[in-house]
Protein backbone atom coordinates (compact mmCIF):
# COMPACT_ATOMS: atom_id res chain seq x y z
CA UNK A 1 0.00 0.00 0.00
CA UNK A 2 1.29 3.46 -0.93
CA UNK A 3 0.03 6.62 0.70
CA UNK A 4 -0.45 9.58 -1.61
CA UNK A 5 -2.18 12.03 0.75
CA UNK A 6 -2.82 12.32 4.47
CA UNK A 7 -5.20 14.68 6.28
CA UNK A 8 -5.05 15.01 10.07
CA UNK A 9 -7.45 16.89 12.34
CA UNK A 10 -7.00 17.21 16.12
CA UNK A 11 -4.56 14.33 16.58
CA UNK A 12 -1.91 14.61 19.34
CA UNK A 13 0.19 17.75 18.69
CA UNK A 14 -1.47 18.41 15.33
CA UNK A 15 -4.47 20.70 15.09
CA UNK A 16 -4.74 20.21 11.34
CA UNK A 17 -2.31 19.01 8.68
CA UNK A 18 -2.48 18.04 5.02
CA UNK A 19 0.44 16.10 3.57
CA UNK A 20 1.10 15.10 -0.05
CA UNK A 21 3.64 12.28 -0.18
CA UNK A 22 6.35 11.85 -2.79
CA UNK A 23 6.53 8.27 -4.14
CA UNK A 24 10.36 8.26 -3.91
CA UNK A 25 11.35 9.93 -0.62
CA UNK A 26 9.67 11.61 2.36
CA UNK A 27 11.51 13.14 5.32
CA UNK A 28 9.85 14.37 8.52
CA UNK A 29 11.73 17.10 10.37
CA UNK A 30 10.80 18.80 13.62
CA UNK A 31 11.74 19.51 17.19
CA UNK A 32 11.72 16.86 19.91
CA UNK A 33 8.33 15.68 21.26
CA UNK A 34 6.40 16.81 18.17
CA UNK A 35 5.01 13.39 17.21
CA UNK A 36 7.21 12.53 14.22
CA UNK A 37 7.43 8.76 15.02
CA UNK A 38 3.63 8.33 14.79
CA UNK A 39 4.00 8.47 11.01
Automatic annotation (TrEMBL):
Pfam families from the UniProt entry: AAA_23
* Top-level division of the source organism's lineage: Bacteria
Domain Rad50/SbcC-type AAA: start-end pairs = 6-36
InterPro entries, A to Z: P-loop_NTPase (IPR027417), Rad50/SbcC_AAA (IPR038729)
Q: What is this protein called?
A: DNA replication and repair protein RecF domain protein
- From which lineage does this chain's organism come? Bacteria, Bacillati, Bacillota, Bacilli, Lactobacillales
